[in-house]
């Protein structure tokens, strides 16, 4: 049916109607006093969401652009960095680092498994000469549905003393607790089309005082992504270049919605939806790709047996207009991923699971009792409060 498409992918995520309506307003001058007031409100509310008093900067880029800015503003060619790689995005940050001439050392884990903090501890503890300049971590590895133990890894980075920690929080910010000031995170990057509940196009980045000190010695060339220019403008409630005015209208409304819901409620909602989705998959006999103890609040990856993952996705799209994500690289065709990030509620999860159950019957899957997934999810969702 036309205009009934339902996004159950890790991004772009569904956008609230009030946000869409705000974005439909006529743009105003981005150098006007009225728009300066919007920037001031956005900055304050973004700091609230990030749980930080650090500089909070808005860039007209995707999450990848924000991460590139996080890397090139604080490092120099030849610098030694550690990159956690247990999925597509950890792999990407290694490639970005190498593209800018950094000495990249990967700490890897099998896709679908979390990074081992102990490996980071040992590597950092052995660096008595303090040559490791940064540790780069993907907090929520969207390609596999794994949430890495950022808090513990960060503790080891702090014990090192010299190294910065640079965090890809693209699908964790706004979905799970990321207390930037409490943990002392140096650089945290994210993207608008995830937990922020607006379309793609804005990159957000938090920068600590320690990171700004590193900036003074960083030698990688930059212009459009020079974060000092963004800080100088943001301090005056402005922007260094033309910003996406209408996206920022939307962000203004989505942040107001998030403040009304409250941080703890946002995190609890994402945890509840994650648990309900995983319980449903287990009840349907569909193996989960990531372990329960490292489950991402943004996405649940499923590796079905007895039924083809791409057939599931295709049927869900054709029959129900529900979009699920597929696997990447060597996981293509082997897993499907159910997004439960941002503007997603209990009704969405139950609808998706019901459609999945129907899809499994259509495809001749005999591994589950009809209704088992819905019953399992409903039992989790009934425990509200």
From TrEMBL:
Residues with the N6-(pyridoxal phosphate)lysine modification: 194
GO-annotated biological processes: glycine biosynthetic process, by transamination of glyoxylate
Ligand binding (substrate): 337
Cofactor: pyridoxal 5'-phosphate
Keyword Transferase found: yes
UniProt keyword annotations, A-Z: Aminotransferase, Pyridoxal phosphate, Transferase
Transferase listed as a keyword: yes
Single GO molecular function: alanine-glyoxylate transaminase activity
Superkingdom of the organism of origin: Bacteria
InterPro entries, sorted: Aminotrans_V_dom, Aminotrans_V_PyrdxlP_BS, PyrdxlP-dep_Trfase, PyrdxlP-dep_Trfase_major, PyrdxlP-dep_Trfase_small, SP_NH2Trfase/AEP_transaminase
Cross-referenced Pfam families: Aminotran_5 (PF00266)
Record domain Aminotransferase class V: where: 16-328
SUPFAM superfamilies to which the protein is assigned, alphabetical: PLP-dependent transferases (SSF53383)
Family (UniProt): Belongs to the class-V pyridoxal-phosphate-dependent aminotransferase family.
PANTHER family: ALANINE--GLYOXYLATE AMINOTRANSFERASE, AMINOTRANSFERASE CLASS V
The name this protein goes by in its record: Aminotransferase class V
Species: Aphanothece sacrum FPU1
